[in-house]
Amino acid sequence: MSDALPIEVTSPTPLFELRGISKEFPGVKALDDVSFAVYPGEVHMLLGENGAGKSSLMKVLCGAYRADAGEFYYNGERVAISSTADAQKLGIAVIFQEFSLVPYLDIAQNIFLGREPKGRIPGTIDRRRILADARRVLDTIGFDIDPSTTVDKLGVAQQQMVEIAKAISQNARILVMDEPTAALSDRETELLFALIARLKADGVSIVYISHRMAEVFALGDRITVLRDGRRIDGVRPADVTPDQLVRMMVGRNVDMTYPRHFADKPGDVLLEVKGLAAPTGISDINIEVRRGEIVGLCGLVGSGRSEVARAIFGADPVTSGEIIFDGKSISGEPDLAARRGIALIPESRKSEGLALLRSVSDNLVVSALRKLFPSGLFDQRSAQRTSDALIRQLRIATPSARQTVGLLSGGNQQKVVIGKWLAAGSKLFIFDEPTRGIDIGAKSEIFALIDRLVAEGAAALMISSEQVEICHVCDRAYVMREGRIAGHLTHNELTEENIVRLGMHHA
Amino acid sequence: MTDISKEIIAPPRSFLSQDAIQLFYRLLAALLICAVLAVLSDSFLSLGNILNVLRQASLTFFIASGLTLVVLTAGLDLSVGANVALSACIAGTVIHKTGSPALGILTGLACGGIVGLLNGIMVTALRIPSFIATYGMLWVLNGLTYWYMAGETLHGFPAGFRQIGSGYLFGLPIPVYLLLVFLGIGTFFAQRTIWGQEIYAIGANPVAARLSGIPVARRLLLVYAVSGTMAGLASIIFLSRLNSAEADIGESLTLPAIAAVLIGGTSLFGGVGTVFGTFIGALILTLVLNGMNLLSVSANWQPLVTGIIVILAVWLDMKTRRRAQ
């Protein structure tokens, strides 16, 4: 926490350095005397739980926030960053998780947005040059695509490449990436890592924010850990173990093994899916989930996992097949599935799981209105009592049930989404990436909660890209590939290798 | 085990809910306007004038109350005025043909409700954005009404029927009683029934509402049908008060109703607002117009002032809400 660098470095001066940065918001100190240095051509991992100050630090770096106190040095010289333009001039570019691309413009237009080469006639754009320039930038990062393709036709990984190309075209020397692999498949992640190696070789420094331990060790040259807005330590990957890093991040010991109480003998069949097919690209899906089980649904991103979940819940139409829940066949809209006892905890909490501007209480009771108020008459106080009980039971960190849910941290928002189905008394919980964007402490709490649910006779179907989690938590798992079930793994067969093997495309 | 202190990003909400604060400001604004008008004009505080203001406000409120529910779901119903005209003309014809006001009233309400239901079907089953669906409906209804009336005016209704719009009970105009009744029903429906809660949830995030098990399409159908039925009710009161019906009586009704909803603090983005707010919105709108009349300001200025009030009210709302978050 001192200004001195904790580890000796090979390169003489840092490319960029922050000293004693503080930033305060009403009610919270987002950054407290944080110092941080980036050396040329290094990958600097930035670690911390949600709310540790990573985003604030990133925003200070790119000029979106003005620091209350602290100094910036570029190549050893003191500089000021008070706007995004200042940061851009210094060659700092940020790739946020939400891309800032214009969907209906093409790649070239996006790369040079606001800096288009002028044509001969005033007010026009030199179309030929913009395409040629874009082509050259795309070549330098090894992205082989026609620059006149519109961005809305690109996948997430490709859009990310366009963002990187845009940064490179602005002569970025420091690239800040916020969880760049969060939405990428394994293969796309490999491509990104190759690109990062290439950029490094060109002397570009990368500040890399990640929640994935494997990445931290695979990519990082140095690691800075933040907690509660303070810099906890700076280390080299070779000098620490994952467990040590986790302890630094959370400030306490966290069990990373997610203990499960595996049932000796699973209960009755709760969900049976027979030959399900849907226009969303899934077909011939056969799944069985019994009471007391946590069943994994894995496969690559885009293999149809979410589509299966949505089809079972009635969120997407189905073309053929049968869904039998609790002995009865169901088909229809989500309200029917919910009434019968199926819960969907969707992948995108903010856009599909919560009404962000409404209160914690409003969100907690929304699926249970009919159950809590059978007469149809709503009572705010009774709703609040139910919510208070859930807040205690799930240990949701909120000042009160009346707090706007959008102001809670990711982990607590996820608990609210789960809580609304607890209130509804659901029997089958379908989790779609339940731990995405959630810090490690909240993760183990959520797994403990799922374990308790199934121990009490419910069942869970869990989609996750984190194979470690699937292996630790699930009784067994189905692996999907290209819209079909590629295989089933029993508890004994459930290993990361087997999941990857079944999920891989056989090219 | 979790360190709660670090997870709290903002201070807790104050004791009063955001809605209550917004309503309080609005009541204050209405009282302020009253105070100013009482000072500027001798006749403002006369009983006759106050009753007149309440009656005027009630007419706007009937249309605006149903509209409030639509706006709460992040929709809009532009056909309410045209719906009033068609319903009034059909109800008027029925009364003339059968001599039964009761039958006429039922036909008017039914006509309004069916139009609303059609709007709802366009929005849910056909997935046409409500703004466009009801805008198209506006033209269709106007066309039907003009064709049906063919330039004629219906005039002269039974004295009993005319009491609804122009009669008094214990010194108060009957529409004011109706206003209180529907203000109560609307507030109860929105705040104290699970349907009302579901409507707020749909407006706040329709995708999350559907994935939370709310039958979104059915609730939207209900909301548009209610909006249409309230237009039907307004048509009866207009018919009774004017003692006549023409094809063009709805043309100046839709925009003031939307103004009342917006001045009342209901967000066009859905999920935020109250029926009571719309009542105060209608009151503020009527008070300002009434005051301008009393002060002999040309009627030509009225639209301009209405526009400024709407913009001001929405701007202040956005400002206070932003600060609250």
From TrEMBL, chain A:
Keywords: ATP-binding, Cell membrane, Membrane, Nucleotide-binding, Repeat, Sugar transport, Translocase, Transport
GO molecular function: ATP binding; ATP hydrolysis activity
CDD domains: ABC_Carb_Monos_I (cd03216), ABC_Carb_Monos_II (cd03215)
Membrane topology: Peripheral membrane protein
GO CC annotation: plasma membrane
Keyword Hydrolase listed: no
Keyword Transport found: yes
Superkingdom assignment: Bacteria
Cellular location(s): Cell membrane
Domain ABC transporter: from-to ranges: 16-253, 264-507
PANTHER family recorded: CARBOHYDRATE TRANSPORT ATP-BINDING PROTEIN MG119-RELATED (PTHR43790), D-ALLOSE IMPORT ATP-BINDING PROTEIN ALSA-RELATED (PTHR43790:SF3)
Function in brief: Involved in beta-(1-->2)glucan export. Transmembrane domains (TMD) form a pore in the inner membrane and the ATP-binding domain (NBD) is responsible for energy generation.
Family: Belongs to the ABC transporter superfamily.
Protein name: Sugar ABC transporter ATP-binding protein
Species whose genome carries this gene: Bradyrhizobium forestalis
TrEMBL record, chain B:
Lineage, opening ranks: Bacteria, Pseudomonadati, Pseudomonadota, Alphaproteobacteria, Hyphomicrobiales
GO cellular component terms, semicolon-separated: plasma membrane
Protein species of origin: Bradyrhizobium forestalis
Pfam family, one: BPD_transp_2
Location within or outside the cell: Cell membrane
Keywords of the record: Cell inner membrane, Cell membrane, Membrane, Transmembrane, Transmembrane helix, Transport
Protein name: ABC transporter permease
Membrane topology designation: Multi-pass membrane protein
Transmembrane parts of this sequence: 23-45, 57-76, 102-121, 128-148, 168-190, 220-240, 252-269, 301-318
Principal cellular location given in the protein's record: membrane
Top-level taxon in the UniProt lineage: Bacteria
Family matches, as PANTHER family: ABC TRANSPORTER PERMEASE PROTEIN YPHD-RELATED, ABC TRANSPORTER PERMEASE PROTEIN YPHD-RELATED-RELATED
Entry keyword annotation includes Transmembrane: yes
GO terms for MF: transmembrane transporter activity
InterPro entries noted in UniProt: ABC_transp_permease
